[in-house]
Amino acid sequence: MARHARWAALGAAAALLVGGCSADTSGGRKDPGDTRSDGSSTSKLPTSLTGQTPDWGRCEGTADSPAPGKEWQCATIKAPLDYAKPDGETVKLALIRSQATGGKGERLGSLLFNFGGPGGSGVSTMPWYASKADRLHERYDLVSWDPRGTGASEGVRCRDDKELRAAEKLDATPDDAAEEKAYFEDAADFGKDCEKAAGSLLSHVSTTDTARDMDLLREVLGDDAMHYFGISYGTELGGVYAHLFPKRVGRVVLDAVVDPTADTFGHALNQAQGFQRALNNYLKSTGQDPKEGTEKITDLLDRLDAKPLPTSSGRDLTETLALTGIILPLYSKESWPGLTTALESAEEGDGSALLALADNYNERDSSGHYGTSSHAQRAISCLDAKQRPTLTEAKKRLARFEEISPAFGDYLGWDTAGWCHDWPVAGQFDTPEVSAPGADPVLLVGNTGDPATPYEGARRMADELGKGVGVLLTWKGEGHGAYGSGSTCVDTTVDSYLLNGTVPKDGKVCS
Questions:
Q1: How many CB atoms lie within 10 A of CB 132?
Q2: CA distances from 349 to 266, 283, 303, 317 (A)
Q3: Is 480 a catalytic residue?
Q4: Which end of the chain is more exposed for a tag (fewer CB within 10 A), N or C?
């Protein structure tokens, strides 16, 4: 099943619904020898990489995504598989762009987008998202890419559709020794499947690797500084980039901000709080008492655990699939009425609507074919995370998870131990390093009703980036992310920063 925890991609919410150049010594470009924390620098990459010129052409459609309009162009470039061996094996990165439309003012360069996940495809999401960024498009080329391990780049697909369908029947909140055994055996097998499918790539899909790819993209796109818009997991990626390349930070916006101080347990607890908060707000909107409404939902889940519901497709709605179906509409307030309909149908004995929501989240189409973003998400997050909680450690915390969220806590608690269980590649850090002394201001947008990346993480990211770097803008709203979600205050503030360089006062609130 797709991952609930860890910064689900913007694509989950969406389901509801010129040439390269080297450093210019004549002025303007920031120091091409900007040193990374490991002592290496982009200037040490071979010119065969830094001097690439993307061969932009018409984008092609795929089985999972139709071809975008003619204003979109696609290309591929090469990046080192291992940045410690820049002259060695390379990986392919797939890019998409739409050139600036030429509105008021001169072109500012490229604005690079990452929409979250990890594991989400920027190539397929960028054309859909572009309508939110019309003003930015006037002066920026809108650019995105499929990070290594995802989509049309060097992707990771660990299992076929038949194996994924079989795994859907597992109970992600085991009730006895037999279910525990099946749960952890499947987790270990998934890691082995990924290792077999991805080979050496599995050790080189970390957030740090992708942040370095971003700087190579900046180089081949011909930009002096990194202008970037990161959403959800893309905010962690942006923070890591700022740490590695503080002198190259241009105008950077991080929306739906990940808490960089949280470890594996911390992220899961944060999301238990965030999704329960969103569920409570949804229940209030329907006139229900949050406690009573949550009890009604947990009662439904308990009944599904004992006996799954039939659906019009012939498949059963299990407890785990129902939980997935409930999660998805919480990403967007506009989707709350659909959740009401699905829950009412389930109470009447028909699980079809909740199953359809779960299928959207799990990227399962009507023919039974699954997307691969959850595979990439697991590969990336397990390579990042050094902390690997054991079954015993997770069980000790289950009561705390359930206290925070009666609806989602049990799943998220078990997930801390199951997600990277017996993963074949060691993790790299407990928490990401995002301090960026000397960087230009980074605008952070926190939404008080965000379920997947709770608001508290935005302030923590601002503090970790450092004084004078992290600037927090707060929106008192609902849903995952703030920009383009209906707040003129948020949109105007972000646009003014990206287009004019106007940095708002730290702590500004949009209500």
A1: 14
A2: 37, 21, 11, 10
A3: yes
A4: C
Catalytic (active site) residue 450: yes
Query: E strands along 72-146, which residues?
Result: 73-80, 90-98, 109-114, 140-146
To the query of whether residue 223 is one of the catalytic residues in this protein, the response is no
**What residue type is 246 in one-letter code?**
P
Q: What is the pLDDT of residues 380-403, one digit of tens each?
A: 999 999 999 999 999 999 999 999
Query: Of these residues, 137, 215, 480, 491, which one is catalytic?
Result: 480
Closest CA to 9 of 361, 406, 292: 361
pLDDT digits (tens, 9 = 90+) for 434-489: 999 999 999 999 999 999 999 999 999 999 999 999 999 999 999 999 999 999 99
Exactly one of 98, 144, 232, 374 is catalytic; which is it?
A: 232
CB distance 209 to 148 below 8 Å: yes
- Residue ranges of E strands in 318-450: 442-449
Residues 211-246: pLDDT tens digits? 999 999 999 999 999 999 999 999 999 999 999 999
What residue type is 191 in one-letter code?
A: G
- CB of 296 closer than 8 Å to CB of 441: no
**CA distance to 278, 333, 337, 456, per residue, from 343 (Å):** 16, 16, 10, 30
HEC sequence for 6-63 = CCCCHHHHHCCCCCCCCCCCCCCCCCCCCECCCCCEHHHCCHHHHCCCCCCEECCCCC
Q: Give the pLDDT score at 34.
A: 40
Please give the Cα distance from 13 to 10 (Å, whole number): 5
Check residue 442 and report its DSSP letter: E
For residues 171-201, one letter each, b for 16 or more C-beta atoms within 10 angstroms of the residue's C-beta and e for the rest, the string is bbbbeeeeebeebbebbebbbebbbebbeeb
CA 390-394-397 angle, to 5 degrees, is 150
331: left (phi over 0), alpha (psi -120 to 50) or beta: alpha
Closest CA to 172 of 182, 164, 162, 163: 182
Q: What is the DSSP string of 156-177?
A: ---S-HHHHHHHTTS-SS--SH
**Residue 457 structure tokens:** 């993480």
Q: Are 435 and 307 contacting, i.e. CB atoms less than 8 angstroms apart?
A: no
Residue showing tokens 């039939």: 310
Task: Compute how many other C-beta atoms are within 10 angstroms of the C-beta atom of residue 500.
Answer: 12
Neighbours of 425 (CB within 10 A): 18
The Cα–Cα gap between 187 and 182 comes to 9
**Cα 229 from Cα 197, distance rounded (Å):** 31
Q: Which of 13, 212, 42 is nearest to 116 (CA)?
A: 13
Which of 98, 450, 485, 491 is labelled catalytic? 450
